[in-house]
Amino acid sequence: MSEIMAIMSAVCWGATGVLLRKTPERHRFSFMLPEGFFSVSLVLILSTIFGAWNDFLLLSSSLIFLSILAACFNILGTFSYVKALNELKIGLTLTVIVSSFILFTMISSKWIFNDSLSFHLILSAIFIIFGVILINLSSSDERNDNFSFRTLLSNYKSLIYCLFAGLLWCSGNLILDQVLENTGVLQVTLIRSLTVLFVYLILSIWFNRFRLSFLYENNSSKFFVLSASFIATLSMLFWFTSLFFGEASLTVILGSSSPIAAIILGRIFLKEKISIYSQIGVISSMVGVVIAII
């Protein structure tokens, strides 16, 4: 169950990226606010259907605090990711973040929580990281988007933001992994969604890029932004369900295969070309996924 949920989360997150790429750049940050509304609404509906309201009353103050803390870590990780994009190309940024995210999670799971790290799990991580590197670093049409240690080191501040993003996302997921051992998916999801909604409502007041200006335009932006928000909500639910049924290291490794879905869906819906390196990257990541499942 954990493996299936992690893969579904990766597919939904990849689809979210494809939809956002069909959206004008000025509206891409806007999807976060509707995602918060969709998340809260969906959790309230599911809680009513499954009669989970009594479980909310059993939440201790410590679990609520840890859930909010995890949500804040994930939000700060997203901000670090966006900050890194100011200086580095997206291929280089994603490569460092995904690699550090997986490595930080595996190391922390082993040394902090004493989770088992089998040989096939480590091998799976290697294949997926290698695949993500090939996919991301060959996905741009720009010639100067090639991997370069000189570029990476010369923009050391952006490198630090990349590592912070991986570390913050790792911290948030490890906290949630422990919280989910004592409560349910819907409870954690609602706390996370309310935290995200509160933060982005404040940001939408201060910054124009977070506002829902796309709703007032007569074009397809509304469809793409709202669709991306809803699918991102499903991705989040699948992710938390995977954490609930399995270990954080397995969820992160399989969840980091989202570039496979993004590049395949991009080919189908955006008519993007897939380079030979991207094809090898997809195959490598798929091999890693299969190794993690068996």
Characterize the structure shown.
With 294 residues, the chain is mostly helical. It has helices spanning 2-21, 32-49, 53-57, 61-85, 90-111, 119-137, 149-154, 156-179, 185-206, 221-245, 248-255, 258-269, 276-293. It has one domain (2-293). 49% of the residues are buried.
Number of helices: 13
Globally, the shape reads globular
- State the helical fraction: over 70%
| Cα-to-Cα separation, first versus last residue | 13 Å
How many strands, what sense, and barrel or not for the largest sheet? none
Annotation, overall tally of beta strands: 0
How many domain units?
A: 1
H/E series: HHHHHHHHHHHHH
What would the average pLDDT be, to the nearest integer? 80
Q: Kindly name the structural category.
A: mainly alpha
Question: Can you tag this structure with a few keywords?
Answer:
single chain; 294 residues; mainly alpha; 13 helices; 76% helix; 0% strand; globular
